[in-house]
Amino acid sequence: MRLYGVIEDIGERKMSTVKVSHGGTISSVEVEDGVSLLEAVSRVKDMHVDASCGGRGTCGKCKVKILKGDLSQPSGSETRFLSNKELENGYRLACMVPVTGNIDVLVNGINAHSRILTEHNGFSGKVNPIIKKKYLVLPEPSLGDQRSDLSRILGSIPLNNPLVSLSLRQKIPTLLRNAGYSITAVFSSDSLISVEEGNTENLNYGIAIDIGTTTIAAYLLDTNTGEILDTISGLNSQKVFGADVISRIEYSMQGTGKLELLQNKIVTQVSDLCIFLTDRNNISRENIYSITLAGNTTMLHLFYGIDPAGIAVAPFIPGFLGAMDLSSSAFKDFPLTCTIYSLPSISGYVGADIVAGILATRMHEREELSLLLDVGTNGEIVFGNKEKLYCCSTAAGPAFEGAHISCGLGGIAGAVDSAVLADDHIKCTTIGNEKAIGICGSGIIDIVAVLLKSGLVEFTGRIRDVDEVEDSTAILLKKLKIDRDGPAFMIAKASETGTGEDVVFTQGDIREVQLAKAAISAGIFSLLNEAGRSLSEIDHVFIAGGFGSYLSRESAAAIGLIPSELLDRTEYAGNTAGLGAITCSLSEESFKDCKKITELTEYVELSSDSFFNMKYMEEMVFPEY
Amino acid sequence: MRLYGVIEDIGERKMSTVKVSHGGTISSVEVEDGVSLLEAVSRVKDMHVDASCGGRGTCGKCKVKILKGDLSQPSGSETRFLSNKELENGYRLACMVPVTGNIDVLVNGINAHSRILTEHNGFSGKVNPIIKKKYLVLPEPSLGDQRSDLSRILGSIPLNNPLVSLSLRQKIPTLLRNAGYSITAVFSSDSLISVEEGNTENLNYGIAIDIGTTTIAAYLLDTNTGEILDTISGLNSQKVFGADVISRIEYSMQGTGKLELLQNKIVTQVSDLCIFLTDRNNISRENIYSITLAGNTTMLHLFYGIDPAGIAVAPFIPGFLGAMDLSSSAFKDFPLTCTIYSLPSISGYVGADIVAGILATRMHEREELSLLLDVGTNGEIVFGNKEKLYCCSTAAGPAFEGAHISCGLGGIAGAVDSAVLADDHIKCTTIGNEKAIGICGSGIIDIVAVLLKSGLVEFTGRIRDVDEVEDSTAILLKKLKIDRDGPAFMIAKASETGTGEDVVFTQGDIREVQLAKAAISAGIFSLLNEAGRSLSEIDHVFIAGGFGSYLSRESAAAIGLIPSELLDRTEYAGNTAGLGAITCSLSEESFKDCKKITELTEYVELSSDSFFNMKYMEEMVFPEY
Hints:
The structure is a homodimer.
Chain A (H helix, E strand, L loop, with lengths): L14 E8 L2 E8 L4 H6 L20 E6 L7 H6 L2 H5 L2 E3 L9 E5 L1 H4 L19 E6 L11 H6 L8 E2 L1 H13 L3 E6 L3 E7 L7 E7 L3 E8 L4 E9 L9 H8 L5 H23 L7 E8 L1 H8 L4 H4 L11 E4 L11 E4 L9 H10 L7 E7 L3 E7 L2 E7 L20 E7 L4 E5 L7 E2 L1 H13 L20 H4 L2 E4 L2 E7 L10 E4 H25 L6 E7 H6 L2 H6 L11 E5 L1 H11 L1 H13 E3 L6 H9 L7
Helix pairs in contact in A: 7-8, 8-9, 11-17, 11-18, 14-19, 17-18
């Protein structure tokens, strides 16, 4: 997925101006002719590109209205996704329109409403970036001061015996003389990273990235001030090779070159995101000194090209777990020269994203007991306080990410994202107020909660027969549909949907949710059991991950995903993996704290835990209403 | 100079057997047809190849006698260097003879008498190699022991947080499983370097190299036992770009690519020597884990491709001075995967070779005061004891290396290497008892000593007129020659030399020697002055370098190069630079000691030292006889 294609050679190419109206403001970008309108629009700052199809014209979600400008004929995929009326009114799919002259374009739903995993509570600590810059006016050499060029520099920065790469050593003598001994040293706690002519102290940028199995979120940081300058997210480009961790690993094992292919995909995507962020913010690539990665254990293995096969089968052994810092030159053709840091992981299924989450929520520093829930394909759970943390991973299945659900979807425009019981029907909303095209995680939980509360589904998960339900809910049954696969609830009829097909929620879907919620809640109880603690002792519950941010706490408690007594202590922590990566980039101490976190945290292996297995069976049922 | 050409692809090529008779033993080597006989011979263990012309047929020194075997017709260069009688008797130049079938060859003077800079007192410390191996039978992973593959290994070696390269991390998971968790870890004090299947503890080799401006010496080491398995030396392949440090630096400044060219030359030569040593000793390249380099500051700059320009002009600032350890992967296409270490230097003109010399002579650990003299183009001098060391470099000029001397030569076969006053003539010897072709350093000093002692030259350096000398030496005057350039001594007449031209020693040559010896002895006095010490307090004098090893101490004292009162305390220390590099390879502590040595040693800059300048003028005269 190279949505963020970067034109390196702009030589003689014609440039055009694209004026983008969005949310009441107009932004203007200069682009090279031939670039897609989607790419042009995405260069506007704060415009978040939902890259669900990667700009291939297959998702139909980048609809824009052309206000002015010559355009090509609509493509086949545009006539499929857009009505004749829309086409007449100037609507087009931005990814299908090549810029060949000046264009004025109105951007509405395109991204404003798509869910991006870039929200969090922000970095609030003391800024002490992992990579520092210091302007130095060095004494010129003389017969009385014959220190080497390198020693002259190192004598003025607060490091003992830092590492210095050969290429930097090669660069220093000429640079020092050209600069008249006024230079800016760029360094981390153990390396002299670069030397620049003159005073460039104010140009110190880093990029923090959370590599999720499904989504990647990247944050451009001014590491001097701690400000988050820009963010971008997209679907993990490895997704076509498998939706979840296990299928990615299995793909990597399919023969020679597969692991390298997966690595190449994600490394390219990371570098594309970085270049995109720097270009969009007019920041020189040379002033990006660090990329700080969080991600689950498997995603980091794939990024580094380290065989993750051992993670897939018992006893679930990863190749590595520790933090890494590596010159980007270790990656062939990487377009930035910087240090790539990654946070350490705890086990094969409790990765650096969770360490980042602990860091972001500071639960490793708290006196009180807290619980961190990161619910995705796996549900990772952490429990404890600054004395000791326990963690586990439960194979929740991807139900809460919309997978294995008949009309399930990720958090994209058109996904049903909430449901409430109205007077006579289930009232749903969709992301971007688009026509429904499926149901995402928060919608799934809301729907199950509604069905349970209204008595349409009993606590065992069985959809009740029509004659079993009370009058007050009978109206709802109008929406019930029965087909070959058994009973199902009609969420949106074909005539009302964006796909032209029914959006339904089936008995099978309810079973998937049961399995998933049982795994999570049994995991919570297992950690409590391990720690010898009870629910009532928990002071905070942090719900992490993109899913968590949109989840209704009440619905989560209603279906038993979170014990209902914790409801008043539950807060959304946002993308804690992203925030943890940001925190490490902005705070050297925090990066070091990650190691302490891994030492403080005991991994509880649930697959061999009889208490968990018992609890898992118990928690398969929903609360009774 | 790719004398040591290595045939990578031996595919279908025909092999022949070369039987080499040398010093009473016969060695047999298998070589690919087409390889030169010189290369075949050089593959015999302990056969030192003098590579003065690089196998191009221009020095005529690789004369061998063919005992049996079909041969090609003599080349033009052979008919030039060999008499008809020699050709009839089967003599050939080995470099000009391609092996095309089985050959029996007698090797006599070829190398046995050529001077190689590989002699020294040997390593005598406790072997604790800089790179260690440890065989590990690791516990297999289980649900109760879910450490990562990497942690499982690191948990069994005595290192905290060692560096591990990305490529090794990528290799470990598969290797560990293939090896059934029985592996050998290869590590240094701060890095896990490699992991090998099974027990390979006994295969631990390193190569120590002294990169001299003129000569390179390489030592193959069994770093488990400390044994020096093999040695080889050759002329520095950069020599065509300048004989001395300054001319090399000047060449590097001549434009784009020149520094890279010099770097490429020396890196290629180092790797060729390494490959040659491993192949000749049937050691796998994979089992060479370290290359440890000593060399002067400029040679190390050129090896690393770091601009040495600052060294050439006041205030003589090098790019770097510290020790380095670097993966060989930092060098493009380097044929070994190992760590390249280099010793630290003290200043632009007191390099790692001198640090190695201090280490080898242990003068930094001695209570008594010692003096280290390394005489080459520059004379480096170190004085002091374990409390404090002083060092300097004097621009002695290359006279003692045979340069700037009318018939001067390096220490190659045919060079006059000693001279004594016989009854009625100056009796000279040559290296390898060949016909004289010139005079090397030790010969130059002997000749000057003889001339001074016999009164043929007065203490001012002037060659006396015939009527000034006493009867007893008159006979010597028969050898005196006078040409356009003034008076000169005939050392060997054209009819007796290997070149067909006179070998002479001129008034100008004597002046060169005066300048050189004045620089050295003034340097010695300057260090004594700096330290507030006197000659009589010196306990040891170490003469280092290839030149030193063949020098007559008496002659050196006779010309005033060494103060005569130190004569009884003077010893040849051999190639201390090589021994220092060997010592670092075999002893981690010694490598660390090098840093202490650089801190203990104060560099005295003579160019701005008025005491030195005064002494330099004083020492220009020879002792009086």
